[in-house]
Design a protein that fits this description.
122 residues; mainly alpha; 37% helix; globular; two-stranded antiparallel sheet
Length: 122
Amino acid sequence: MHRKARREIWGYAPNEYFDNTDLIYEKYQGIRPAPGYPACPEHTEKNLLWDLMAVKESTGSWFAEAMASLPTAAVSGFYFSHPEAAYFTVGKINQDQVDDYAQRKDMTRMFAEYWLAPNLGY
């Protein structure tokens, strides 16, 4: 999908070709971080994505309780085409940051801590 976006939908790289090594080393322009991965560790953002695009209604895909996509071949993510876009990892999060995040997301601290557990710094 990322290749299709770069070559056809965005159209800035219609003739690009990368072998597997180039793809592994991310030599292409743009990034595609996905909820649940290091750049976007909190899975609940998938609800917003799928609601905005009516994914369940149009594809039949849904989420398990722990936000795993079903069927398992289903994936979701954000696509950014900017030439300077780069992957990054969210570091450890302090309790004050979790409290602020939980308030902005209208969730309890305990719920936020559940979804952010790998990134908690306390």
